[in-house]
Amino acid sequence: MRGLAPPAVIALAAALTSLAGGAVAVRGETLRPAATASPAAPAPSRAPLLPAQGEAAQPSARGLAAALDQALTAQGLGGRVAASVLDVESGTALLERRSQVDVLPASTAKIATAVAALTALGPDARLTTRVLAGRTAGEMVVVGSGDVTLAGPVTQGGYPRPARLADLARQAHGALGGARVTRVLVDDTAYPGARLGPGWKPGYVASGDVMPVDALSVDAGRTGVGGPRVADPGLAAGAALARALGAPTAPVVRGRAQEGARQLAAVVSPPVPQLVERMLDLSDNDLAESLSRQVALAEGEPATFAGASQAVAGVLARVLPEAADGIRLADGSGLSRLDRVRPGVLVRLLALVARGEDPRLSPVLSGLPVAGFRGTLQDRFRGADGLPAAGVVRAKTGTLSGVSALAGLVRTRSGRLLAFDLTADAVPEGATYGAELALDALAADLARCGCR
To answer: Side-chain half-sphere of 27: how many Cα atoms within 13 Å?
Structure first.
């Protein structure tokens, strides 16, 4: 039975949430958030979120094993768990259970995508959607560069503040001087190749989990709250622009922008660090796929699934050499059943981020959901077994058929900061909720552990 968090925990979580911005809760990774964005919040602090550990005693491997042994065999986990726990300050591995075995990560893969994007793109990078003049009078070309947060009538604001289609249309209308729009061309060639990822379940678009990957979209291909995504986000965006310009019957077709064409309008996305925070907090599959393609472009690779996979792998290997063998992704979101991650490598990546050696990576910390209070963990850690971790754990969830995972950071009762990855990859069909409860209990055991 779920209870309410005590005041002390609420106060702690409120402080954490104020640093990282509010967000809409989402259960699991195969259920997407409502089309409206998260509640408005101030820009997150770039200061370190995790203070120095000082002289706090490091847990012992024996003590940690004793504290977690029983919970690791919980029936809800399906009998097969890969677990890795690392002391962040010392880099000491404290628990290794199948930690060097390749597992299906589900959305914990977004941690790797986040690190690659922040490393390759830099803090000031933004994605621009432009409208250019066409070859004939009244013709215009809308050019996408991958901003999946571009907001139309379905998106009602929130944090980070998105660029809006209405502003793009207003600028374009002014530049045309009231001339009639005769045709809208859609140039979404920035992202070539297949739109559905290798290893994706066929129903992901129909169920609303992700849109077909496209360099141009409005409301991430949503036509309302919940429900399926549009089959062709680029053409749907072009049609939305035509309507916003007062030309709903104007033909909308694909085409290429003419080199040197006059720019009529442009809007820009929030900066990449804020996009990364949103991706992690809401487990936004569309952002993950777009950011991985931005990494590909930055690394000189084609912005395809294969190019993004190669580019992300190359960046991660520079950040953490073990990632060359230990993190192999076929997509950016973790939806693919071809993705493979070794938990022992992912926790080392998390520990590297938490040590603050590269300040560019701090949005990974501020973007991780907060147990019991924010993001994909807002509805979790409310029961008696998980409550000790509420407000104390920051972690990325991962959920696919047969897989339930939790990877992030926790401060123990004695004050040590631990990085952890807990992945159950033999969860029976229909047993996801039980697996989540069991993972929450494991994280809570870490939070209350002295473990000497």
So the answer is: 8
